[in-house]
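Contributing new records

If you add data, match the layout below exactly. Sequence lines come first and carry their own label; structure lines follow with theirs. Keep one chain per record. Anything else will be rejected by the validation script.
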Amino acid sequence: MQAYYVDVVMATQDNEFFFPSPYGGCFDTKTVYDWFRDILWKAGISHTGKGPRLHDVRHVYAITCLKNWIRQGRDLTNCLPYLSVYLGHEDIRGSQRYLRLTSELYPDIVSTIESDCNWMIPEVKQDEAD
């Protein structure tokens, strides 16, 4: 990907898309969806309409970044804005959904987020009667 970035994206400074269409602009959403379905089919992964979804790739990428940063001992307060920009969010609030993880799945991420980024995720008080 890095070589692609240098050869294609950086070579054409006026290009705003990472994977530009050969016809200009971006690829049609249906085209990308069809490619994804084809990849799933070739990999023997069924697609029942409930997943996997193309958007799930973003979630996996975001969670993988968080896991790697924690393993490397990086400061999430400094790293999260980069992830937010990379994912195309206007600000860190757009990336908060990736931080809402269960402690059963990712206890190391949750504990690090709680200690480093507690200010970023507000506590939600829920009435037990609901």
